[in-house]
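Researcher: Next entry in the queue.
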Amino acid sequence: MTGMSPQVILLFSGKRKCGKDFLTNRLKEKFGETCEIIRISEPIKSHWAKENNLNLNELLSDGEYKEFYRLAMIKWSDEMREKDYGCFCRTACGNVILITALVKPIWIVSDIRRTTDIQWFKETYGELVKTIRLTADEDTRIERGFQFKCGVDDVASECGLDNYNEWNLVINNGKGKQSLEEQLSRIAELIPVL
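Model: Structure for this entry, 194 residues:
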């Protein structure tokens, strides 16, 4: 990496429909222009859209279009990660580093899915990295539209961090959850005074 780097990198992980995008978008609203959301899945979806003449915006959304292609994208991205586990992390960060590191000191990575994602960020950015796991009970996830899909919900892209226990913060975003403001305040405690 170049000499430019953010001051804190918040890595978010959680199962499908646990609220990662909702919470990270609210965090961005809270911190405004001082932060940038980075999606590891964006280079995957961008490549997939280009190679298959698909609508990138639909792949980036949370709808049925993305779900239709999800299994094939997972398979392809796993093959790429076998060659270079940091390839998508590097590309996602490279897309924003030149313009944001100096003006947006808070990076929010909204979709960490594997231990190798965390490994790459810690190897690259060290102590700047803070890890956050969102959890939600299955009933809540189902209420949000979750339906178990074989080959998606039982593979590394969804289960790769199930046994990871070194989180800086774990937030229950299901039944009995704290208010949004309380959740955002807990996350803000991980951010150094800028």
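Model: The chain has nine helices and five strands.
Researcher: Noted, moving on.
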